[in-house]
Amino acid sequence: MPSPVLFALIATGVLAQFADRLALDTITLAATQAGASPRLVGLLVAAQSAAWLLVSLPAGVFADRVAPRGLIRIGGLLMIVGALAGAALLATGETAWLLAGSAFVAATGPVVIALSIFVLMPRVVGIAALPRANGRLELGRACFSLAAPLIAGWAVARGQGWFGLLICASAGLLVLMAASRLPGEHPAPQPRQPLHRAIAEGGLFVARHPYLRPIALCAIAWNMAFFAFTAMVAPYAARILLLAPETIGLASSVYGAGLIAGALSGAALIARLPTGLLLVFGPASSLVGAGLLALAPVGLGWPALAVAFFLFGFGPILWFITQTSLRQAVTPQALLGRVSATLTTAMYGMRPIGALAGGLAGEWFGLATAIWLPVALFGLSTLAILASSMPALRAMPEGELNPQAAE
Q1: What is the pLDDT of residues 257-266, one digit of tens each?
Q2: Half-sphere exposure in the Cβ direction for 379 (13 Å, CA)
Q3: DSSP string, 207-262
């Protein structure tokens, strides 16, 4: 059984991720059902995900300087404010710029919370226990991710998309309650640097590190691919595969099943399989899923969509648990927040770029052609790992690796 502190830490991460996913599914489905163009759907996805690009790096500096519990509370408040504003807008039929702004505010909360959890986790458990602890965190997120598309599909099909965002606001309130159980200690004092220099120090560590650099490159391409796919999947499924909102939500929920399967098996697979193999398998499985969907005829639309979402969940969650534990193991304590922010920007900061690219491609070239954009980007993410030294990595490092020495 996890300790009360670890349980509270996992709860905050699970609730934040659930709210982030539920808001994304609700907004894209509600806009599509209201007749929004692929470009507008891409804009909404980009606004919801832009927080990861704009907020991660400065938030990572503060995560190294202040008590993470305080940042988690700020994140919970942002979730509540943004989700309540979005619920009010959906209730009045607004699916454009104001909704995009509320989505950005609500998404800022999970950004701050994710960085704080990354910094706190190595303080709560030892390095050897990181894969299991991260696996529990991802298992909880996966279980709730399974429910998010179902809730969104049910609410939007009944013209009550606002209800999904009310649930997001409730998750923010629960985050505030869970945060009260977390330790409030401040990190060890460090020499104060200007914000831009502190950010640059974390980025330089990642750029020079033989493990973190290919992870960042893979993450950039994968997240561009996934959010190009996310921006066009609802219009593609509805207008090309001719699926109803409930069916799209049901197929999307298989993503959560893939996450659960990967999270349940993550710690055991990391202990038994070469680390490099798991890091290749994550993006490669996404490439296969996207390719199968692009090739699927209308009659096989639902099975192909479900298989794609399962592979998007199963392989990448193994990759995420593996690389999270690896970077926690090789990063000095004083740099955890900034290194996490750099990788978070690489992983999630490409979301708005990918979403805008997917939306514009769908409008300019047609959805049937544009669906090949995420296929190509998933291929690049796989190549980023294959072209590095990562495939030869046999086991999880047990201590910090000096990037200067490794060059």
Answers
A1: 888 888 888 7
A2: 6
A3: HH-TTHHHHHHHHHHHHHHHHHHHHHHHHHHHHTS---HHHHHHHHHHHHHHHHHH
Is 382 a residue whose pLDDT tops 90?
A: yes
Contact between residue 312 and residue 21 where contact means Cβ atoms under 8 Å apart = no
State how far the Cα of 16 lies from the Cα of 243, in Å rounded to an integer: 29
Torsion over CA: 210, 211, 214, 219 (sign): negative
Do 347 and 219 form a contact (C-beta atoms < 8 A)?
A: yes
Angle in degrees, CA 248, 262, 128, rounded to 5:
150
- Reference 280, options 321, 329, 316; nearest CA is 316
Of residues 40, 240, 230, 249, the one with CA closest to residue 156 = 249
What pLDDT was estimated at residue 189?
Answer: 55
To 10 degrees, the CA torsion angle through 155, 160, 162, 163? -50
Q: What is the pLDDT of residues 83-142, one digit of tens each?
A: 999 999 888 877 677 888 888 999 899 988 988 888 778 777 766 677 778 888 878 777
For 4-183+195-406, CATH number? 1.20.1250.20
Q: For residue 69, which of 172, 185, 222 has the smallest C-alpha distance?
A: 185
Whole-number Å distance between alpha carbons of 351 and 23: 15
pLDDT band at 403 (very low <50, low <70, confident <90, very high): very low
Q: Answer whether 79's CB lies under 8 Å from 67's CB.
A: no
In the chain, what are the domain boundaries? 4-183+195-406
Q: How far apart are CA 288 and CA 304, in angstroms?
A: 11
Say how many CA atoms lie within 13 Å of 365 toward its Cβ: 12
- 230 residue type, one letter: T
In whole angstroms, what is the distance from residue 17 CA to residue 350 CA?
17
What gap in Å lies between CA 305 and CA 151, rounded to an integer?
18
Helices (runs of H) and strands (runs of E) counted in the chain: 17, 0
The position carrying tokens 């033989």 is 210
CB 50, CB 351: distance < 8 Å: yes
Please name the residues in contact with 73: beta carbons below 8 A apart, sequence gap of 6 or more.
175, 176, 179
Residue with tokens 């799209």: 248
Alpha-carbon span 359 to 288, nearest angstrom:
22
- pLDDT at residue 194 in the model: 64
